[in-house]
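New to this. Please check both lines:
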Amino acid sequence: MAIEIQELHIRINVEEEPAGQSTTESRSEEREQIIADVVEKVMEILSKKEER
């Protein structure tokens, strides 16, 4: 029995620290890292899908 995924929803929740506890650069770097991780996971999923 084959399973077909027609739609994929990705949801992330990023909790920011209260103002004054981390620098703007630090938050920016954290966001960039999160985005890079998410993109990597999506690319892995897409490559697995192509292999099928």
Q: What stands out?
A: Residues 23-52 form one domain.
